[in-house]
Amino acid sequence: MTDLLTKHSFVELGARQRAKALLDAGTFRELIDPFQRVMSPWLGRQGVVPQADDGVIIAKGSIGGMPVVVAAIEGNFQGGSLGEVGGAKIAGALELAAGDNRNGIPTRAVLLLETGGVRLQEANLGLAAIADIHAAIVDLRQYQPVIGVVAGSVGCFGGMSIAAGLCSYLVVTREARLGLNGPQVIEQEAGLDEYDSRDRPFIWSLTGGEQRFNSGLVDRYVADDVAQIQQTVTALMHAGLPAQQRSRQVDFYLARLTELDTTAQIVPAAVCELYQGERP
Amino acid sequence: METLSFEFPAGQPPKGRALVGCVGSGDLEVLLEPGTPGRLTIEVQTSVNGAEQRWQHLFERIFQEQMPPAMHIDIHDFGATPGVVRLRLEQGFEEIDHD
After folding, report:
1. Does this model's pTM top 0.90?
2. Both A243 and A253 in a single domain?
3. Number of CB pairs, chain A paired with chain B, less than 8 A apart
């Protein structure tokens, strides 16, 4: 109980509050703020109410005194889906951060990912923006770490799960989920017998934060606590670039997947063993 | 989706601006900015059609208790109940006062 009283939930914060909570006090400065009304031009004409910031908050500031840009996705607006505007805001912020580095300013990036991936109403424009985000992460991560945080409760799916995979470091909580396809999509494609999207323990046992950490697919597993997440992100920023980017370990993962016996339904423990076994 | 416009008599403009809420299920986003003295203008974009009277009555009830400051308010509504709308507006008024 005392533990509960001293903790401040990160998951319950909105995207703008999350960005503020991570940045050093008083350094939060929002780029393309909601009063500039750079909104989706596509949602209104499809009868969907837009949001003034298109569900993406870009904030510059510092963490532990280090210059950083934070991109936070609001999971409560359209499932955190990325359209043309929100996607361009993230890609542009990362490109500017890479530009900073080429000009001698060591800007890092933190991505707060709560997203189902591309916004279906904006189709190819959203996909193009997500591809720009991928390219920008790969560019920036040569200079400074790009840190992804999936706190929950939306999780991170679709093209943005690839963005998560490209990050220098990934931080998750128990609430988080990370996967290429969302549970309902898998159920629809593979059938209820294979994947029941309503079975929450089953879904989290395969794609939840704890399982992803135990499988070695993310770097830090933290409690849903503002202070702990803040400290973890700060420590990763201090750690500098990883010895090897996870997304460069293609040969290792491909070799592992080739060994997999797909005749039986895989269980979570077998996934951990598959990915965590002997490393080269 | 519908876009509705409202206008009410008001006092002097506030100094700051405020943003509260989110366009999430059963919630709304409210942007409050200083307007021209004596006028309060509100533009509502809502996912619920045919509710103009309800918005009108709700605003009248809130503003008859106290003269609002002169503002332009933009509302992006995703099916919020009148109770939630009122809470968000009051939250917005409180935050605009702090600036």
Report:
1. yes
2. no
3. 46
